Amino acid sequence: MRRYLDTARRYRWVIILVLALTWLPGAAMAYLEYITSYEADATIWTQRTSQQFASLSPQDPGLSALVSPAQEQAGILMQLLKTRSFLEKIVERTSVGAPGAEGDEQRFYDEFSKRFRIDILGTNLFRLAYRARDPHTAPEVVLATLDQRQKNLLASRTAATDAGTSFYRSELSLAENQALDTQHELEAFDAAHKPPLSASEDYQQRQLRLALEDARSRVSDIKGRIDRSGVMPGLLEMADNLDFQVVDKPLDTARPSGGTRPAATIAGSAMLAGIALAIALIVGGILLAGRVEAESDIGRLVPGTLVATIPEVARGKSGRTRELRTALATVAFGGAAPAQARADR
Amino acid sequence: MTDPNGRLCGLFDGLATRIRSAELRTVGFTGAVYGEGASTLALGTSLSLAALRSGQVLLVDANWLRPSLTSDAAVRSAPGLADVLRGDAELGKVLVPTDRAGLSFLAAGGVDGRRPPLEDLSSFLTDALSEFSAVVADLPPALAGESVVLAWGAALEQIFVVVRNGVTPLALVRRAIEEVALEQPQIVLNRATAATGSGTAASRVAMT
Questions:
Q1: Using CB atoms, which residue from A290, A291, A311 is nearest to B202?
Q2: pTM beyond 0.90
Q3: Which of A87, B95, B148, B201 sits at a 20 to 30 Å CA gap from B138?
Q4: In chain A, what residues touch B200 (CB-CB under 8 Å)?
Q5: Structurally, how many domains does chain A consist of?
């Protein structure tokens, strides 16, 4: 521990400089984020009569849990806010402004999406919030989001109803043809058989009349279904308005709000980065200091006694490095030495 | 020293004088890792000891992991220390004469992947000291050849740990000293620059 403290003391001015270079801009950015954040939110009441289980993990559909209406609706809204098409529709409906170049588009929508926040306040209550750079955009975006969600829902229900209606129409066409054929058969039978009718002819005539009535009642049933499906979207919309009620609409805020968390994140990140750099500096300093740089280091850092110092040999006058080892080997072993002399001196 | 390279060999005179004045007859040089300069110091110190003319000096290449002195002497295939320890050769017959009067060299010898027996190091040194006044051993790095250094450490009177200035991490030096269980390690700082401490280019020796 003492080594770390000594190194920190040795590099204190560098550490102070590093901390100043990370903390001060971090604090400035955090402050800027705080004073330019305007958050608006809407509180939504949701209800559902039946209980619903939802999958906890997309990878494991068998793992499910009971979800509250607020969790369900908040989850749906969160998923919608992750889709590019939904975000594009919101941007089109507000004064946020379209993204610039193509490359920036992804970043723009990522940033846009990150500014939404959904908090579940209770089993039936949740809050949708958006943080903007100016006081007017935030409520506008929240309202546009809720409106767009409603439109998406209506569009999907209308599409489902249209599919049902077109199915019923094809069924109606078949039923009408069947009724017409049965009518023709009965008319042909009546034309061919004049009263008095025998018992079997009478039975056959009654069978044909029954078939005709059955076909006509099917036609009328299908027509009723088609009529009902036409009003279904309206009914469902009404039901949705009851199940998804905006209790508190977003308001314009004149004072900055909602920037505390991102500002704290920025400040915290800068602080951690500064500390990490300082630690790296101290560790690096210890590694550098972990080598003998002076004779006094031996006694201080290694458990031993320094008995001799062999100085670095200067280069020769010719400019060539004169290897001490080669020279010594030549002295000791003569001509055999230079070729094998090692460079481990 | 009176040779063309006297200026360079003179770098080790201080250490050699210290060894002689401390009456150390068997010494070894090791480092924490390769590249510390232990072999160079063993060679230089042997040359200086021989130049002091206090008797015959035997330089032993005990670095079987990387026998660089044996390579320098161009006797890699010749029998040497390993063969003597195995009892396959006699010390007097495998010595390599050198160009320096009073200095003999014992090559590493044939290892063939088997570690030579180190149990008889003491008797080997006793034999060697009957013919030589000093034995200088070049040992493998402590962290690479721990068992070899440990055995030599028990047999030699003194092991010098070579530390390369500005390069060797002190953590490795500490580990090496712990690994070879040196109680009072004697450290030689190699390749010291003028700024390292003394301010002079000459070698310095602590006469402790």
A1: A311
A2: no
A3: B201
A4: 311
A5: 2
